[in-house]
Amino acid sequence: MHPRRSAQEVLLCDLCETVPLQSHCKLCHINLCINCVGKHLSDSSKDHNVVPFIKHIQPTPNYPKCPKHAEKHCELHCEECNIPVCITCVSSGKHKGHDMSDILEKLSTKTESLQKDLEELEKRIYPRYEEMASGVQTEKAELETKYGKLTTAADQQGELLHREVTAIVNQRKSAITEMKTKHLDALNKNTEEITQKMAELKQIMSDLKSILKSNDVSLTSTYKSRNSEFRTLPPKVRVTLPSLSPQKINKDQLNEMFGSLPPLSINTEHGDTMKSAEAVSSPPVKPLLDEPRVTATIDTGYRHRLYSVSCLSEDQVWTCGENKTMKLFNLQSKLLTSIKTKSGDEPDDIAVTRDGDLVYTDYHDHTINFVKNKQIQTVIILQGWRPINVCCTAGNDLLVTMNSDDVKQSKVVRYSGFTEKQSIQFDDQGRPLYSSGDYIKYLSENKNLDICVADYRAVVVVNQSGKLRFRYTGHPSNTKQSFKPYGITTDSQSHILTADYHYHRIHILDQDGQFLRYIHCDLRRPWGLCVDIRDNLFVAERDTAKVKKIQYL
Question: Is the pTM of this model over 0.85?
Answer without folding.
Answer: no
